[in-house]
Amino acid sequence: MFRFAHIEMLWLLMTIPVFVAAYIVIIRRKQRQLREFGDPTLLAELMPNVSRVRPIVKFGLVMVALVLLILAAARPQYGQKEKTVKRQGIEAVIALDISNSMLAEDVAPSRLDRAKQMLSKMIDNMVDDKVGVVVFAGEAFTQLPITCDYVSAKMFLNTITPDLIQTQGTAIGDAIYTSIRAFGSEDSDASRVIILITDGENHEDDALVAAKAANEQGIKIFVIGIGKADGSPIPIPGTNNFRKDRSGNVVVSKLNESMCKEVASAGHGLYVHCDNTNTAMRALQKEIDTLATSEIETKVYADYNEQYQGFVLLALLILLADFFIFNRKNKTLTKIDIFGK
């Protein structure tokens, strides 16, 4: 299999027609100037060592060398080596509440941002684990299928905002069922855990039934309750105002801690409260470290062999040949009559 590691560099090939067009314009201008100076046939006899072909050959060699160098810069790669990597780890699906109430600022900088910061640190501590991301509000969907690609996991995590889901609410049951499906249908001996982060407000569906269903499949549920029981108003992004109900009163979002504890208990997991300290992070990491680990097979990947060296070497040889080709004819060589008169 052949590919370019930096295929965007191939856009530089668009400069070749520009150079060719500019060269043609310059050549025609010189020819026009010679015709204005005198008869081309007479001028050719007065300048016997001038070559019309050599400059074109030299320009062509430079263009070919430039093409080869551009191809080398694009890093051509060929061949692949398939490999299946086995690691020791767990499988975790992060179910993150992104309802508007998660914008409350009773936890700095906000509930959602604080949750993302904590999850980012948790992913940094992962070595041989698999991680997936599910987001939910009034409905839930898989943001990132379970993977060992931690870079992608953190990238998706940073892009999460409440705008991803228009239906408001806190469908925790739907989030748990979606997280179960995110693990996939393949059997695994690795410990599986759902890390549910929510304020538990406006709980809509039967989360306890979903938690028990997860437990029946050997999946534990760790619940992180974020926010304060006293509550906080919900700011409207881009303004200095807060969300209000139909009566015009400012909406105060409160952490439903009792519901969060019930879900964790039904899922045979752990409940921790997240505040402005790292207590929740340490408790969660400690619990994850105690989970039994087993071999996890990662996806088959490919190692490609670099092929740019050949392009660079050929370009250097062409430039070397161009260096030894002069624009004028060689007087000594023109006197040699190989075939006789």
Secondary-structure map:
Layout: E1 2-4, H1 15-37, H2 40-46, H3 53-73, E2 76-78, E3 86-89, E4 91-97, H4 111-124, E5 130-136, E6 140-147, H5 150-158, H6 172-182, E7 192-198, H7 207-216, E8 219-226, E9 232-233, E10 252-253, H8 257-266, E11 271-274, H9 279-290, E12 294-297, E13 305-306, H10 308-323, H11 331-334
Parallel strand pairs: 4-5, 4-7, 7-8, 8-11
Antiparallel strand pairs: 1-2, 2-13, 3-12, 5-6, 9-10
Helix pairs in contact: 1-3, 3-10, 4-5, 6-7, 7-8
Question: Can you characterise this structure?
Answer:
- By secondary structure, the protein is α/β, with parallel strands linked by helices.
- It has 2 domains: 109 residues, no CATH class; 212 residues, von Willebrand factor, type A domain (Rossmann fold), CATH 3.40.50.
- 40% of the residues lie in helices and 18% in strands.
- Strands 6-5-4-7-8-11 form a 6-stranded mixed β-sheet, sandwiched between helices. A 3-stranded antiparallel β-sheet has the order 1-2-13. It has a two-stranded antiparallel sheet with strand order 3-12.
- Helix 7 links the parallel strand 7 and strand 8.
- Helix 3 runs antiparallel to helix 10, helix 4 runs antiparallel to helix 5 and helix 7 runs parallel beside helix 8.
- The chain is elongated.
- The mean pLDDT is 84.
